[in-house]
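Workshop exercise sheet. Pairs work together: one partner reads the sequence aloud, the other fills in the structure field after running the prediction. Swap roles for the next sheet.
Pair: D.N. / O.F.
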Amino acid sequence: MEWCTQVTALHSPVVVNLAYNWTRDELLPSLLLFVLMGTLILARSRVWNNSETSEWVELFFPTKLASDTTERNRQREPLPPGAWSVKGNGATGMCSAAVPWILPGLSVGGQASILVYLVGAGVFLALGRWLWRKWWRYRASVRQDVHQLRLLAHSLGACCDGVLVAEGGRSPNSPLRIVYSNPAFDRLLGFAESEAVGLSPSVLADQAEPDALEAVRLALRGTQIVRLEVPSRRKDGSRVWTEWQIVPVADQYGRFTHTVAIIRDTTQRRCMEQQLRESEARFRSLFEHAADAIVLFDSSGQVVDANPCACQSFGYGREEFRQYRFQQLEVHSEAVDSVTGGTQTRECLYRRKDGSVFPAEVRYAWIEASGQRLRMALIRDVSRRRQTELALRERENLLRNILAAIPCGVFWKDRELRYVGCNEQVARDMGFGQPEQLIGKTDYEIVPLRTEAEFFRSCDQRVLETGQPLMYIEEPLTTRDGICRTLLTSKVPLRDPQGTIIGVVGVYQDISERKRLEQQLFQAQKMEAVGRLAGGIAHDFNNLLTIIRGNADLLRAQLNDAPNALLERLDDLRLAADRAAALVRQLLMFSRQSSGQVELVDLNNVIRGMASMLDRLLGERIRLVTDLSAEPATLLADYSHLEQVIMNLAVNAGDAMPQGGTLTLATRLLPATTLDPVRHSPNHLPQRWIELRVIDTGIGMTDAVKNRIFEPFFTTKGPDKGTGLGLATVFGIVQRLGGQIRVESAPHRGTTFTLLLPWTAGQPAPSTRTPLPPLLASQLNRQNGRLLLVEDEDALRKLARIALESQGYQVYEAPDAETALQLLETHADLTFDILVTDLIMPGIDGRELAQRLLQRYPHLAIVFMSGYVPDSIPLDAFATAVFLAKPFTPSDLCRGVATAAQRQGARVSSVDTVTNAAAATIISPPTS
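Structure field:
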């Protein structure tokens, strides 16, 4: 047998010993030992595995056994539980190794027995040492197993998920019962500690859910790892959702004897998932039905999704949208990735599919979707808002421009009467540069005079208390420059949307100029009365002057050889008539009844032409000095008006120097930058000015007199030396020319009049002023022709007839237009070449008479005569007519008739006027 072969091979010392004993006749004890050793070997061989051949080496090589044991202890290899009782390889191995050496020694005597005993003792000690190590390793293994069991128990107790261990259930007769449950399982399902042990795990499922109950039963009885989520019932009947992970456990023979289930409460998770699904549904609903465009794109800018509003706004479908990057939709876009974290809002321009561009406000935000981080762009089309904002800005700018442009001051205050706002006009009037400088200040801090500030505040307080507007009150204001102004102010309460008074709104207008103009209006009313008086008497008065002056000229011509004394009286008579005519012209000028002829005149030539006359007029005691500019001082004016200005100023200066002195007339051209830069010429270029200075060394004037010198009829002279119209005439002419006049004077320091007249570029026309010779007959050639003379003043008509007949005309006369028309009807065969008629007559006036005669005689030459021409009588229809202003001399009449005849013959399209003998010129009639 195999085991006998092993015993023989492995225990050869025993066999030798037995053979020896047999020879000594000790067969019976040896036989007994042999049987005992065989028994031990047999027992050992039955518990060994064939693979454990290392124990054979340990029997015969104790040193090898000790070294291997030390290495095992060093590696701390734990001994499996039950190794001592199951395998028995420790004790039986040592006994089988020791007994073959000890027992033979019992039968060997002498020195051989001592050697045998020593060998046996060594083997016994090695056996003891080996047994001690085996026992220590087993004890350490048991302690480690107990520690691991305790750690496992604590871990299961601290686990948040419920754990149960069930056994059975693998056969129809084997029920499934819980053999272990941790505290988390008991808390989860409401059981007391270990109360669930012995129950079936299927009772934990919800009986109301048969499908879930059946799924739990099948998983617990199956042999596969299963994960499922089912509703469960707690001990108190409440329902919870649990997630089961079921793992079957097999024994060492592969039989499934137990089932481990790990149970997790998923009620809260399911609630959260439900809320998440509802939230996703709400988000999807908002995403689909949002009024703004929403575009989702990833970190690279690729569009992931877009809502219907975005598709409608951009004109793309959803699939088309996903083919674009978001940056491709923007105009002048900036990198979206450059903005990290949080929410960013900006405005951008976007391009639609059709190429049109629209402005939008876009807000970016990061969102998480399906484990992917996406960028959401919320795009709101702001085209209408931009239009509304633009309209609002335009309205604000319009309102701001209106407030800045209106010539009124606008301000508003709070209930504390502090300025809240105002326009630029208020800031300028108060002496500030910007309206913001007034905000928060009171009138006490702005207005220099406290009395004026108190008056302003009293009016404001009255509006606040009564709630009623305060309209058109005159408020005095003294500026920081010391200028006194008058403000016409209206104040109303400022209310909020609820109607509560929160302040005062004021609007005022500076009426300082109006007050000054009112004073001038009073003067103008006086002058209008004078003008009306002059207009009413001018015609008749000029008729008388014409008679006086005409007869004086006739007498002067007829009495040329008379004594000088008689001729001087006639000259005085003519001079008196001229002065009376000049006075009438001044009165007509005040009332705007006469405007004269406007032409380009050189002021220097006017002064040069009047120099000799002024020398005779001023006398020997006054020296005349002229300082004229080198370049022509040309302006648009009436020549005679400039003569009147110089004459009146010179006469006034001569009266101021009764003891003699010096009168200086100086002219110069001023650059455009040396005067008021606000006034410009019609072509928007800066206006140049002519400065005329009239300086005397007379007695001067006080301030009181200087403030009234331009008032009509104001004079400091005696009643027989002045009318008070000289300086008033000068002022009116200068104002009509668009100029300015300043006066500098002081008592005993003389007076300086400075006139600033607008300069006009151009070359003045040659002067038409040619003096007439003293004899009428030698001046004009004799004429012929039939002439109709119409004049309501008998003496004047007689004078005119004599003058015209002396020139060879055949004169027919009539006192009025009706008589003239009757004369034409009576003498139907008569043909008239010239009509000389008075312009203003009772009944049919001269203009209507001329129109009727022109229908009958188309080639009729016409001469109009009048003391003045009102604006209501236009003469533009008579292109070839001549206007003859009264008073006139017989020479003026004859020249006017001759000129009219020549113009009618030459068909000249202009209207001229012949002035009196002193002027000796033909001018155009005044225009309306």
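Discussion prompt: The chain has a mean pLDDT of 75. What would you look at next?
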